[in-house]
Amino acid sequence: MKSVLYCTFALTLLLACSRNLHAEESVPLQRDWMINLVDGMGWTFGLPDEPQDADYLEILEGRRRYRIEAEQARRPTDMVSAKDFTSFGEFSGEGWLSGIATPTTAHLDFHLPIAGRYRVSTSLLQPGFKISIGGHSFQADGGKAFEPVELGAVDLPAGALEIIVELPPNGGIDYLELQAPNLRPVAPLQGWNPGAALGREDLAVTVARLLDLEPALPPAGLPLIIEAETAGPFSGVEITDIRRMGEPSGGRWIRSGNLPAEVFFAFEVPAAGVYSLALRGTALSEQTARLNERFEFTLNFPSYLGAVEVGDFYLPRGLNTLQITLPPRAGLDSLSLQPHGSRPDNYLRLAGLQELSDPPTIAEMNRLLALLAALGPAR
C-alpha cells in the first residue's frame, strides 16, 4: 500500500504543478498518448519497423500468447517446403513445414511484441528434432503423425526473434507456440479510440492502470458473496456441511476427493468496474486459477477454511468466470467481490485532476511520461 500511496502522491503533485503551464498548447489525440506511452516506457523494441495503431495497441493490451505458423515464418532459402495434405494428421494455419530425406535446418523469423518468460510448445512429425530459441536448445520428438510437444520455458526479449529448427529426415513442424501470463491492459475506460481527442479521464485511467493504482479507488458498497455450493458446474467435488475445518459462510461448502477437481464459478456483476476478489477455502498445497480466460494466478489456502486475496481486477458488466483447479482433499466455501468506485470522476480524483475541466496538452503529456518512465513497470 505504501507504493500505491507514493505513486498517487507523486502523480498528483506532478499534474498539479503543471496546471498553469499549458495555455498555448494544442490538444493531443488518444493516438498521441498511446504512441508516446509506448515510446516513453521504453517498450518500442516490441514494435515493427513501421508500426501502425494495431502494433501499439497489441503492446498495451498485454496479451502474451503467440502461435508461429512454421510454413509462414520460414526463410525461402532453407531446404524445406510447405505442404497442406493431412496424411500425417490435422494441422493449424494454411499448412505445415516439411523437411527432406536427410537432416536439414529451417529458420523461423518472428517479431515478439512483449518480453517475458514464455512456455514454448510445438507440434512435430517424426522423432529427432533440435529447436533453438532465445539462446536455449530443446531436444524434442514427434510421432508418426503430428503431435503436440511441450519444450520448456525460456526468457525472451521483445523484438526480432530467430528460431532454428533442426529437422530429422522426413520430419515436419506445424507451429511453435509461445505463452506467458497476460499483463493487465492499459486502456481508457471505453477502450482506445486513436482518432478521438485525449481527455483528462483517459490520462487518469491509463496512468492508474499502468501504475497499478486501481486498488486505491474507494470501496463502493457491500461485497458480493457467491457461495461455492451454488456455483457450478462442478467436476470431482461434493457438497458438504462438515464443520471441523471451520464454519462455512452459507452452511455448506464443496470439497474435492482423492483427485484434483475443476471448479467453475460463473457469476454476474451489476456494473463494470474494479473489484477486489477473495476466495475462502482450504487446501494442503498450491492451487491455480484463471479469471475470464485471461488472468492466471496461484492461491495458497490455509489448512482450515480461511480467506485469501485473489487480486483487484476490472470486470465487465454481466457474466464473468473464475476457474479453479483444486488439489486433492481441498475445498472452497465462497467467492467475495468488493466493488470499488470506477467512474471517471473516481479516477480523476485518484490522479488529482478532479478540479480541471480543460483538456490536457502535449506539454502535460510529456511531463507525465517522465514520471511514468521512472515509476512504471517494464513490459
From TrEMBL:
Task: Give start-end of the signal peptide.
Answer: 1-23
Keywords attached to this entry = Signal
> This chain belongs to which protein, by name?
Uncharacterized protein
Q: What species is given as this protein's source?
A: Desulfuromonas versatilis
